[in-house]
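User: Could you check the structure of this?
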Amino acid sequence: MKGPAASGAQQELVGAVGGSVIFPLTHSLDRIDSIIWFFESTTLITIQPTTTNKPDTVIVTKNHNKERLDFLHRNYSLKLSKLSKNDSGAYSVQIHSPSLQEPFIQEYGLRVYEHLSKPKITLGLKSNKNGTCVTNLTCFLERGGEDVTYSWKTLGKTSNESHNGSVLPITWTLREKDMTFICMARNPISSNSSNTIFAQKLCEGIAGDLDSTMGLWISLLLIVLILVLIILTMWKQTRKESTEEKRMDTHPEIPNCYPPSGETAQYDTISNPNKTIPEENSVNPLYCTVQIPQKMEKPHSLPTSPDTPKLFIYEKVI
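Assistant: Sure, the predicted structure tokens are below.
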């Protein structure tokens, strides 16, 4: 008899939800007493081959697995159908043979994945300055996002570019040709691509932002010009009024020779010492109208001397 059979390295298998997977079993044993398949620590199926034309004895532990479990008669490899996410885990098989002191053991690891849905793209914070659009595109999946890798294709440049990762940084200007971006998602059983994203549509507000910025500067300039004109107009008006006030201050008012209503006119006779009056005209009197002002304003009054009376005297010689 041979010694204990060495177990082979663990085999990693993948399957798709709703699909099937085969656990390959390779051995060189001529006589086999039994083959037992395990999921984790639970027995799935036991097979007892026969050496006659009679069918092999097959025992399925759980009834709900009867339609899902099958095996290949030539080497007893196991086939598991109608996979679900719950089928992921560790599997093993033990082969008992009279030629072995210890059972032959083979281990497997199964990962069940969903088929990827169409990737979606979200737009990060966008900055439009000086005709340049700067933003980030993020690719994601609504379901089936386990063990997914992302990549990007950028079309439209002198040479097409690729980028790994779910986030793609973008810098695009109006002077450049339109560019297209495509996100591709992959997992061990499937792949899918997003809809095409166009840079021009993505940054369609960039031209509008430039126009609005220009319009804002023009509006500010107009407002400044209007304010300057208003200030100049007010300054000229103030200067004109100040000039008129100064002019009025330099020309005192001419006293009125006629008394205002309510005032009493006083008359006096004044002789002229420098002129000889004929005798026949000596009897002609000389009258003067004197106005007594009610109020004298010091700043605008005529200069007076101590010898000059405070009353204004106007003479009329007849």
